[in-house]
Amino acid sequence: MPISSQYFSYTIFLLILQLLLPTILYASNDCMYTSIIAFGNSLTDTGRCSDGRLIIDFLAKGLGLPFIPPYVGSKENGNKTELGKGVNYAVVGAYALNSSFHEARGVFNFLTNVSLGDEFEWFKRSLSSFCSSFSHCKLKIRHSLFLVGEIGGNDYSMELVAGKSIKQVKSFVPLVIDKITTTVKKLIELGGKIFVVPNLLPIECTPLALTLFKSSDAKMYDNTTGCLISIKKLEEYHNQLLQRELHKIRVNFPKVNVIYADYYNAALQLYRSPTQFGFVQPLRACCGGGGPYNYNPSALCGERSSTVCAHPNRFVNWDEIHLTEAAYRMIYKSVFKGSYSIPRFSSLCPAIAS
């Protein structure tokens, strides 16, 4: 289904808004964030499904913070000092929606039943672990950067892998967007002032999607990237709705800074012009079990029958769904130091651009 002219017009409006927003951003504390509070899935999880660092790791370094510890590990160790620098609540395989929603549709997550709602509840319960009083909590939250996502990709990919059509998956995109933006608003109610909300990374360019949904029809592929057009349209729909709803939050909460992080287009440039960024294998996985895209469901990355490329830094894709450290570094630079955010993060935090 083509994207409607209404969404196209709104996208143009947001591009214009990007040029204007740096002059009207609510006064910040000049990038002096004391911690990062992160929610999400395996793109953020401290297990690091990659050959090295993730976007959140580069962000922490750029802000002068240590790697952000996981909620579960810090909770068990009682390490309040580290929690003071932030907490990472992200879990591999996490959904935006509750797992019960997908299970009712006959789709089951073999990795976890954790959702964004669960991660938010963990955050609320753990407030006493990194602040001593209500007033201290408010101050701590005020000076924390909240990274809400990427989240939602598993909701779509799990359903697609289970055999649901693009139309069926597209029907619940508004529910995913509502869950993300509702979480942001709940965090605002708790005192949050600065939010980075990423859109989706290109699922249509993953070895998993390219293998499972391969087609002999060349028209099914984007001729600039080699990625699947049908899934691309689904993701564009998600990203456009997310932009629209985040703009509403900015209007309703003018003293809060909400950054739309365009992971999608920052990553897409790596697939469009790989050699420009030092990549030679944009679609093939570095780690996998063979096949055109080095993805084999019976020989996943990490299993004995899988192999690993000699130079991961020349690959965009690490395994069937995750990227390499080199790719994540490029996305970080584009989003947090460059122009792939609305408004520009570097306008809010000039020190990070140096």
Automatic annotation (TrEMBL):
Gene3D superfamilies, sorted: SGNH hydrolase (3.40.50.1110)
GO molecular function: hydrolase activity, acting on ester bonds
Listed InterPro entries: GDSL, SGNH_hydro_sf, SGNH_plant_lipase-like
UniProt keywords, alphabetically: Glycoprotein, Hydrolase, Signal
Keyword Membrane: no
Superkingdom of source: Eukaryota
Residues annotated as signal peptide: 1-27
Similarity comment: Belongs to the 'GDSL' lipolytic enzyme family.
Protein's name in the database: Sinapine esterase
Record organism: Lactuca saligna (Willowleaf lettuce)
